[in-house]
């Protein structure tokens, strides 16, 4: 790639601080500014990483003409508003998941990208995890054969997380299990049907009016004979943290390990074999390769909860940074782009709607960019 650099501003310094050193070492990025409402936290992170440009106000950050792109890591209810503000201010946007909390917000972001010609990328970790890159390599090499069915799950106990998570409908944060099944097949979701199961504690239900402990959704792929099933739980369901996907194909199938840190399984016909997933740091610039195997968030004794529970998100963080920066440098569309991000996000939004209606089939909107 050419040697020009993109001035990045990171917004939200909880999970967002994890990405600071990656941008600092990427050959085509300049870790230019950080934004955090809490001044003490802003200065703590700014001093720790040597970042001079600091903002407590997102709107003031957007007025800075030297900011090329923002990477948004704020609470999920802020994602759509801040993405739209940034695009309308002339900034490229990378945003942590989910893209938005409503279908209409997703539609507005897709429209803003089309109107401005700017770049939007949802920073979905699982489709850049080593597990996904391994299965993708097997599939694209022909080893798996024809895809027949896909299944994914994301189970997590959210007790102790910030208050806005309490009682969140499980499928409202489903991108980690929706994205890999759609991404592997290079497909869009056409319609969904979802069932809720079980009941969470009464005090959790009132916030969002969602009673379900578990939501399980079937996804029909557009222009394809494929379907997938995804399962999501957030509270009152006993299970070790798990972001997983299984792929069933004609020659070989892949099943995610049942217990974290144990080997996954490849089935060749009816013969199973445990497999160690390789790392894919070689796909990255040398300067950021080491970030696939270690957390960088604020020292060894202060790892972010998502990194501890998520086993480092499969080494995905530097891959996400590289895809976003590369897309900007090469003036190409990143993966996932705004349209794909909207399709992935709206699977979860509409799946919950389906569950509340007893499994009613709901069609995904058309987010085609003309």
Automatic annotation (TrEMBL):
Pfam family, one: GFO_IDH_MocA
Domain Gfo/Idh/MocA-like oxidoreductase N-terminal as annotated: residue spans: 6-122
UniProt cross-references to PANTHER family, sorted A to Z: D-GLUCOSIDE 3-DEHYDROGENASE (PTHR43249:SF1), UDP-N-ACETYL-2-AMINO-2-DEOXY-D-GLUCURONATE OXIDASE (PTHR43249)
Name of this protein: Gfo/Idh/MocA family oxidoreductase
Natural source organism: Pedobacter riviphilus
């Amino acid at each position: 790639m050419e040697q020009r650099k993109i001035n990045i501003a990171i917004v939200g310094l909880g999970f967002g601080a994890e990405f600071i050193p990656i941008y600092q070492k990427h050959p085509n990025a300049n870790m230019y500014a950080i934004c955090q409402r809490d001044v003490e936290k802003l200065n703590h992170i700014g001093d720790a990483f040597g970042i001079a440009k600091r903002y407590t106000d997102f709107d003031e950050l957007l007025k800075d003409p030297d900011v090329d792109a923002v990477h948004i890591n704020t609470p999920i209810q802020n994602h759509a508003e801040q993405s739209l503000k940034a695009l309308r201010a002339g900034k490229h946007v990378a945003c942590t998941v989910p893209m938005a909390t409503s279908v209409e917000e997703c539609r507005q972001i897709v429209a803003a990208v089309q109107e401005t010609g700017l770049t939007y990328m949802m920073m979905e970790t699982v489709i850049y995890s080593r597990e996904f890159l391994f299965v993708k390599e097997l599939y694209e090499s022909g080893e798996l054969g024809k895809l027949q069915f896909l299944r994914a799950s994301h189970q997590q106990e959210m007790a102790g997380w910030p208050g806005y998570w309490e009682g969140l409908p499980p499928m409202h944060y489903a991108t980690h299990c929706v994205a890999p099944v759609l991404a592997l097949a290079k497909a869009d979701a056409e319609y969904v049907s979802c069932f809720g199961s079980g009941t969470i504690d009464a005090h959790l239900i009132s916030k969002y009016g969602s009673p379900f402990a578990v939501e399980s959704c079937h996804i029909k792929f557009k222009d394809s004979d494929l379907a997938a099933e995804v399962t999501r739980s957030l509270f009152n369901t006993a299970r070790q943290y798990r972001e997983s996907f299984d792929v069933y194909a004609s020659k070989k199938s892949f099943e995610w390990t049942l217990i974290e840190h144990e080997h996954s399984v490849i089935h060749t016909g009816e013969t199973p074999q445990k497999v160690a997933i390789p790392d894919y740091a070689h796909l990255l610039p040398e300067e950021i390769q080491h970030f696939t195997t270690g957390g960088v968030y604020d020292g060894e004794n202060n790892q972010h909860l998502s990194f501890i529970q998520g086993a480092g998100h499969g080494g995905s963080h530097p891959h996400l940074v590289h895809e976003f920066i590369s897309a900007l440098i090469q003036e190409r569309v990143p993966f996932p782009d705004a349209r794909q991000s909207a399709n992935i996000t709206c699977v979860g939004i509409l799946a919950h709607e389906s569950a509340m209606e007893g499994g009613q089939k709901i069609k995904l909107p058309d987010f085609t960019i003309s």
